[in-house]
Amino acid sequence: MVTAGDIEPAGPLRIASSSAFGRHVLAPLLPSLQQRYPQLQLELRLSDRAVQHGPEAVDASIRIGAQLEDGVVARQLARIPFVFCAAPAYLKAHGTPQQPSELGSHRGLLHRFPTDGRPLRWCLLKDGQRVDAAHHPAGGVRG
């Protein structure tokens, strides 16, 4: 087990992450981490599903969202911006929204959290204030 008192981290370290974050951010960092701490036995588990922490599961996980599991300490590592995208053909046919309130008349995909199926609301910042945009999902994306 890796502990804060170790002079050099050693032993197994199981880290869970979403597939995209693990592939694009964590995986490229692993070779240098392994070179710096050769006694560390890294295991990266990539999944877009909720994970369990503890002796039989993972030691740490990196996820987007609030802490969901009792007894787990959460720390914000970064802010992940979401962007709204539309195909030029869609905008030509339906118009380009100029205000968050106009999104209610547009269709879009709705992301659902894989842990509990909650929808990720469309939120925007307008003049520094958070605005929830009403929308009508045309489908959903899980994961």
Précis, in short:
With 143 residues, the protein is of the alpha/beta class. Helices cover 17% and strands 27% of the residues. The radius of gyration is 20 Å and the shape is elongated.
Helix-strand layout with pairing:
Blueprint: E1 11-17, H1 19-36, E2 40-46, E3 60-62, H2 88-94, E4 107-112, E5 123-126, E6 129-132, E7 136-142
Parallel strand pairs: 1-2, 1-3, 4-7
Antiparallel strand pairs: 5-6
Structural summary, described in words:
This protein is 17% helix and 27% strand. It has helices at residues 19-36, 88-94, and strands at residues 11-17, 40-46, 60-62, 107-112, 123-126, 129-132, 136-142. By secondary structure, the chain is of the alpha/beta class. The two termini are 30 Å apart. It has two helices and seven strands, in the order E-H-E-E-H-E-E-E-E. Belongs to the LysR transcriptional regulatory family. This is LysR substrate-binding domain-containing protein. It holds the Pfam family LysR_substrate. Residues 8-123 form the LysR substrate-binding domain.
Low-confidence segments, given as residue ranges, are: none
Euclidean distance between termini CA atoms: 30 Å
- Main pleated-sheet profile: 3 strands, parallel
User: What is Rg?
Assistant: 20 Å
- Residue-averaged pLDDT, rounded? 81
Morphology: elongated
The SSE order reads EHEEHEEEE
Q: Which strand order do you get reading across the main beta sheet?
A: 2-1-3
How many helices in DSSP terms?
A: 2
By secondary-structure content and strand pairing, the structural class works out as alpha/beta
Percentage of β-strand residues: 25-35%
How many strands? 7
- As a percent range, the share of helical residues equals 10-25%
